[in-house]
Amino acid sequence: MFLQKLCNSTCMVSRQCFKLVSNVTRRPFLTRCPSFVLLLQLEGLGSCLAFLHRHDMKPVIVHGCAVPEEVEMTPQVLYNVKNQLVEDSMRMVNVLEAQGAPARPLFSGGCILEAEPKNPLSADLRGIVKEVNPEPLKWCLRSGHIPVISTLGETSTGQVMTIDSSEATEQISQILAPLKVMFLNTQGGIVDRGDQHQSTELLTRNEQSTAIMMSLNADRRRDSTVVQVNLPADLENLLQQPWCTAAIKKKVMRISELLNKLPPESSVVITSANAVLTELFTHHGSGTFFKNTEPIKKYKSLADVDLKRLNELIRRSFGRVLKDDYWERLQGRLNTLYLSEEYNAAAIVTNEQVDGMPYLDKFSVSTQIQNDEKARAREEYYYREQLEGQGTSEMLWEHVRRDFKSLFWRSRGSNKINPWYFKRSEGSWSDGQWTVFWYGVSQPKLSYELVDFAAKLPSSFTEDDDIGSKASIAE
Fold first, then answer.
1. Phi, psi (5° rounding) for residue 409?
2. pLDDT in tens, 121-161
3. How far are the Cα atoms of 217, 239, 349, 366, 405 from residue 399, in angstroms, in the given order?
4. Nearest CA among 203, 165, 193, 201 for reference residue 181
5. Which of the ends of the chain has fewer CB neighbours closer than 10 A, N or C?
């Protein structure tokens, strides 16, 4: 299912986030829904999808009927699967329309999914997707209906075959290029089950919920659920875990490969069918969120840094130009420079004479500013990303937070990203012009000294003219 994850649990911010999502989610979003979800959580799922449809967000539902690999897909088994899929489609459509959301069942996926045998040398009637015809889906969406697709494909000779629902979802996603793909189950996101290897493998085989434990920051976990996986940075660490079975690796690798074929703003979520709205319209979400992000590199000096590109990033991000001597003055104070591979995000931490406390001198995320609609939409995406705590900005912050147990920084009082900072700080002070933030400070006297130091710092910029960027962060 495709959508944009939202932030903040207060009513006011939720309404603002909902407006943002409804404005940007004109592309359809896809939901992969196994048969057991329809059996156990159909009413909750139908209510969530109808809500989204009423607010001009366009879901596309893909559902299948899992048959164990050891069971041969004979004509009789295929006949039973087809009957089950027809029944599931009708039940889903009935629930959606009872909620006021018109839906159209596409009983045979053959009009959408052209198939070819998974094993040409076998009589088994399992298939793989050869080609996707998006026209029936677009027709449904244009007419204001929710497409409900059963995962049956058809070969060029007219033979009907079953298609794995995950594969069908991935192939359709590549054609529709959604903002979000949701893989639904009955439990929620990927769960940290510790050393329960046997139950992990059982859950995976039954497509219930992949159990994964990762060495992620505490703020990226919600209870025992792995909240966020940044790709490719987290991939190697995940695959090296001793509990990471072949089935788990396959699941995560497929998500990684899918994201590489989707637009950069797209994401994938594994969550419960009953928690779709919680995942989309609250800061904490309810599942496991996968996102492609730029790798972050660390530098202890400026010798290997392209200062021209870094200058341009900061100019775009803050809308102002750095003073000519900024980098020269930074040389003796630089502690760590964090820089994304493509120079779209940077954080500069310095050593200051305030009880050895490191200072976050700059934190910025931006994109190339171009005079076309796609670039402007991308700028909006990165601004939303700051508010929502996703993607490169969140990954950059995690690098800083992991390396520095205490930190302070300041931001202009008018900075639109300040709500993002308040969530990640443990204390703050404001005089209207500046807001000073900190974390890891337990002594009140030290916090006064930090505020006094930060408030008196001269500006790093030669001017305050706004040149149009919305991704300004810490100064």
1. -160, 170
2. 999 999 999 999 999 999 999 999 999 999 999 999 999 99
3. 10, 20, 12, 18, 11
4. 165
5. C
